[in-house]
Amino acid sequence: MKKNETQLGAIHAGFSYLLWGLLPIYWKLLNNVEAKEILANRIFWSFVFMVAVLILTKKGDLCVRTIKGFAQNKKQLYALTLASLLISANWFTYIWAVNNGHMIEASLGYYMNPLVSIVLGMIVLKEKSTFYQYLSFILAAVGVLIITFSHGEFPWIAIILALSFGLYGLAKKLINVDSSVGLTLETLVVTPFAAIYMLFLFLNGSSSFLIAGAGTDLLLIGAGAATAVPLLYFAKGAQKIPLSLLGFLQYIAPTLTLLLGILVYHEHFSTVQLLSFLFIWMALAIYSLSKTKLLTAKELKWRKEKRASM
Known about the structure:
Layout: H1 2-28, H2 35-56, H3 60-69, H4 74-99, H5 103-123, H6 131-151, H7 156-174, H8 179-204, H9 214-238, H10 243-249, H11 252-264, H12 271-290, H13 293-309
């Protein structure tokens, strides 16, 4: 049963990353709207969408019980609030990056995500790591340093995306609630702020929603479903598989984003960027191979020989 649950979790997480990899196409359709307004609408309509999901799946009572349960379990309440803030910061950074011609750097951030997840798993959850996983992290760090020193500018977009989503994945591991209820409550935390900002823009005459046309309105409303569906699958997967495997699956999304940036939206991909990406790709390849039976057996043999020689 446990093996089947792990496989199902991997499928759910993998599908979520497939959807995320294609999501830049959606945000590009809204490039006439400021990133802050897109974020506010994304949060607000995600909450509306999730309330509808709870009603249709008859989980309203479960949601109420979960909220009451936070009174006895403050740790989960804090984790939920942290998850909400982290995913909001991630959303804003990503939307801004995509609509301002930084899709390639955004993909770099998500390539770094697996390695952030590995480190967090090691430090916080005490997950065991091998020599090959340590090596993969070092290679990825070299890739980041190359792009930093060559441009003379720290890749802050990539770093914010990697850290915010890596920490979000960790927070989700600490929240032991139903995935749809958890996502509803995450959006609930920041929905009042989003609604106030949307109202401010409308009263100020600077809102795109209800002013820029029916097409824009539908896209902004649809951002709720476009956001919630992959997050629901991610939440289902995150609770059933190790954080290290979750990190491994994350390279699906940045690969699609990178290809979109280069082939569809024609962003410049320099030689230095290619070199940096090569180091990170090598890191991911080594990490992937570290999970094979051959290297796992070699690692175990090396550890036994090391203990015997001590």
